Amino acid sequence: MTTNESQEDNMHKASSSTRRRGGISGVLEGIRTGFLATAMGAALLSGTLVTAQPALAEVPLDQLVRIVAEGGSSFTRTFNPFSPTTRWVSLRTMYEPLMIQNYATGKLDPWLGTDYKWSDDALSLTVTLRNDVKWSDGQPFTADDVVFTFNLMRDNPGLIGPASGAFGQYLKSVEAVDPTTVKFTFSTTYTPGLYSLVDQFIVPEHVWKDVKDPVTFENADPVGTGPFTTIDAFGTDRYQVTQNPNYWQPLKIQGVFVQGFNGNDQVSAAVLSGNIDWGGLVPDPDTTFVPLDPEHFGYWWPRTSVVLLQANTTDPSLGDVNVRKAISMALDRQRMINTGVWGKSVPANATGLPEAPFKDWLDAKVIADGQGWVSMDPDAANKLLDDSSYAKGPDGIRVGKDGKPLKYDIIVPSGWNDWVSASQIVAENLKDIGIDVTLRTTTADSWTNSTFTGQFQLSLGTAQRTATPFEFYRNNMATTSVKPVGTASPNNQQRYGDPKVDELLSKFAASTDASEQKAIIAELEGMFSQAAPAIPLYEQPDWGLYNTRRFTGFPNEKDPYAPLSLQMTNGPLLVWPHLERRAE
User: Fold this and answer.
1) Cα separation of 536 and 543, whole Å?
2) How far apart are alpha carbons 518 and 234 in whole angstroms?
3) Separation between Cα atoms, residue 441 and residue 462, nearest integer Å
4) How far apart are CA 466 and CA 432, in angstroms?
5) Phi first, then psi: what are they for 238, rounded to 5°?
6) Domain of life of the organism in this record (predicted)?
7) Distance CA 284, CA 400 (A)
8) pLDDT tens digits, one per residue of 195-226
9) 176 in helix, strand or coil?
10) Distance between CA atoms of 119 and 408, rounded to whole angstroms?
């Protein structure tokens, strides 16, 4: 299993489903899920990390941070950050955004931009830029590059990025007030647009203005503002990227080495043998990983999202909130956590939001009032179904008001073992309340197509990581996010919508008052708990392993300055300046 988005990735779902389901994100998902299926008896195979460098490498491999980020052995030299098939480093070491939503701290960290300010009517947003940034080729970075990037996306709808579609939704224009000031003018008040706009990576005008087709451009020799932009060596199954000679922050490491892995055993063996500095996943690391070298091996799995059981509300019975809540009350969440993620999580609350990143938004009363329907109580679940006229037939299976038995398939990609395990528990638990569920495993592509198009009955999904709860409730409850069955949508796969939610979201988007926004979110939390549009299961860990034998400075539970997960698009940018080579 992996998250329903990559990600990562930090991209907005509506604009990045291709990136998250194909290209690098798909590879990351394969790597992540592969660990869960790895046979531990084969984990110490030798020769898992090819130490030979690609041809023409100038920086020795032992000076580079070795990461698990891409799988396979057919890399193409594509560093176009707008492309779904771009190399992993494009958005983690080469191109940078104006600001970074730090999911470890819950803060918006300044990056290429240092500050922002709304106009009184919230129809314009002014961002101040750093004045000491250069592109890797030595040219100055200015507001003109920002304006160019946004206009490039406006003129080429095929380009993928956090701000894709902004002009069509809320953005009217972007202008350079001066070399270090950018002004975004909105066509309608939409304060959540801040996060999409500042999250957008920026490309250099002096390079991209001459590109005939930015959609297909491979960008084999990238020019960026990020810490590592030099393609020191490139091969079909490995490559290394080294320092940007003009980076605007001090760096204590030379770069990164990325190798492709063919098969789960190779990756797990490389991690367990200490040949990987950062990344990967092994089952139950307290038992299989950390004890091998407690002084240097560690992991940190903060929880920034929630695993959801999605019930397709276009089904007559699943469209009944009482059925969804009865399903929820039948589920043994703690067992899912113990078997699927080795006890490294907690059951989700009734708002659908993870606690750590949204602690300042959560309404304690909503959580307390809704605890009953997200806690295991099969007796109460049976009573709710009885009272709602879902009687059991002769075979013990309940019958819907349309006369059809409550028999459903739950679909999950094969190999996503934590989700397979959770789905098996769902099927087992629901039999106790007269609902017959059959687990169907499928390919990841088939599962994605079925869930995105609404052609499923039950499925697991992961809530997108978002900067504020606004995006979560828009994605799961707004009528504007509901697409007809058969029409692909990366959001609201359960097809639930409430016009009252639309009204509250509009009020939130039009407000710049923090207390007013918090009150609106509290109301939305209550509506989510009342309607149960999706069933929260448990908080999703963000997988991250580290090995400090060669490099130190990785974020961890004691020093949670940034996410450790390599899957988050901008997360690694926060980490590189903190890493340094361990003294020999």
Assistant:
1) 20
2) 49
3) 17
4) 35
5) -165, 155
6) Bacteria
7) 41
8) 999 999 999 999 999 999 999 999 999 999 99
9) strand
10) 51
**452: enclosing H helix or E strand:** helix 444-452
Work out whether strand 580-581 and strand 458-462 pair parallel, antiparallel, or are unpaired. Answer: unpaired
The answer to whether the CB of 502 falls within 8 A of the CB of 318 is no
Once rounded to an integer, what is the mean pLDDT over residues 290-295?
97
> Are the CB atoms for 147 and 184 separated by under 8 Å?
no
Choose among 303, 307, 299: nearest CA to 336. Answer: 307
- Cβ atoms within 10 A of the Cβ of 245, count? 11
Residue that has been written with the tokens 């094969």 in this structure: 414
Its sign, for the CA torsion 236, 240, 246, 248, is positive
- Non-local (6+) Cβ contacts of 394 within 8 A are none
Q: Is the pLDDT of residue 53 over 90?
A: no
DSSP state of 88: G
Query: How many Å separate Cα 576 from the centre of its chain?
Result: 20
CA 146, CA 135: separation in Å to the nearest integer? 13
- Please tell me the distance from the alpha carbon of residue 531 to that of residue 497, in angstroms, as a whole number: 10
CA distance 154 to 165: 8
CA distance 306 to 461: 8
Q: Which tokens in the block code for residue 474?
A: 């828009």
CA distance 54 to 546: 24
Pairing of strands 171-178, 181-186: antiparallel
Residue 265, H or E segment: helix 264-272
The Cα 198–Cα 184 span in angstroms is 10
d(CA 327, CA 534): 11
pLDDT of residue 141: 98
Query: What DSSP character marks residue 449?
Result: H
Which amino acid, residue 7? Q
Grade residue 327 by pLDDT with cuts at 50, 70 and 90: very high
Whole-angstrom Cα distance, residue 385 to residue 320? 10
Write down the mean pLDDT value for the chain. Answer: 88
Which of 308, 339, 279 lies closest to 542 in space, CA to CA? 279
Which domains, ranges and CATH numbers included, belong to the chain? 95-209 (3.90.76.10), 303-541 (3.10.105.10)
| 3-state per-residue secondary structure call for 513-540 | CHHHHHHHHHHHHHHHHHHCCCEEEEEE
Run of H or E residues at 177: strand 171-178
Kindly give, in sequence order, each residue whose CB lies less than 8 Å from that of residue 575, ignoring residues fewer than 6 positions away. 553, 554, 555, 562, 564
Residue 168 identity: G
Cα distances from 220 to residues 229, 234, 239, 465, 579, in angstroms, run: 11, 10, 13, 31, 27
DSSP H helices in 200-345: 205-208, 264-272, 285-288, 321-329, 333-340
| pLDDT for residue 55 | 59
Total length of the chain: 584
Q: What angle do CA 303, 520, 529 make, to 5 degrees?
A: 60
